[in-house]
Write the structure tokens for this entry.
Amino acid sequence: MPADPLVPPLSGQEPDTSLFAPASLTDLFVSFTWLALQGFGGVLAVVQRELVEKKRWMTREQFVEDWAVAQVMPGPNVVNLSLMIGGRYFGLPGALAALAGMLVAPLVVVLLLAVLYGRFADTATAQGALRGMGAVAAGLITATGIKLMAALGDSPLGLRACAAFALTTFVAIAWLRLPLVWVLLVVGGSASLWAYRRLGSRPAQRR
């Protein structure tokens, strides 16, 4: 593996000498193009595997934090994440290179698939295949969520509080069918405020 510059650790964390940074704008573009071409349905699982386990551009904890920010920002989550990562290492050119990688090749593929789908959408085979893809995508997202739960152990809220917020969010959206924007504002805002206060109280506890 090439000796890429190490990724700067998050505040309060020890440096992880096994982490690497993108080598160039081309590396960003190619990496996100490959990532995007794999992201049919269960994109969260693909992003986590590529950026954390294969590329080692970030730890699981960093991924959870960045994904949370990307999740609450307007626009597709993975596109927001690509902009954040590209901008972090190469500024505006890096953000644009990562964004181009996420959009150019998938746009061509989606247009071709749209033409094919327009011809075969009414067939029972096509409808059954789409239902099967939906089940697989749900399984991929669930498995990735379970895998990332260990990273919540280092959260200032603690694992139990994180699980309680996650359960509250699930009930609000899946069962009560509340609008997503209100769930983000109320539940997400409460979690953010609580974490902020917990982080602010840590220096006082050390004295």
Observations:
- Residues 77-120 form the longest helix (44 residues).
- The mean pLDDT is 80.
- The chain is about 75% helix and 0% strand.
